[in-house]
Amino acid sequence: MEHSSIPQNCITIYTKCINFAAIKHRNQRRLDSDETPYINHPIGVAYILTEAGITDLEVLQAAILHDTVEDTDTSFEEIESLFGPTVRAIVQEVTDDKSLPKQERKRLQIEHAS
Length: 114
Description:
Layout: H1 8-24, H2 40-51, H3 57-65, H4 68-71, H5 76-83, H6 85-94, H7 102-111
Helix pairs in contact: 1-3, 2-3, 3-6, 5-6
């Protein structure tokens, strides 16, 4: 059996991140016909990124956390205190400003997609 080369601390950090998001999104459901648990969405986004070859731990953490500030009581300060300033910056970059109209939020998402 081949052993993984992923350092234990990376697995711990990533699992902490998934657990945090799961707790924050615990009472939320997707608006699909099955009312899928919301946490499936950020995990799916992280999976898509890994399938595309993204291996940067902080980018994957931000993928998991990307809706916590938007859709839960999480603050950017909380993200930074638990996961560091780089993760906070990435999450902040992809978080919608809910004070803007939906069409403008979507336009800004496309503009900031890279």
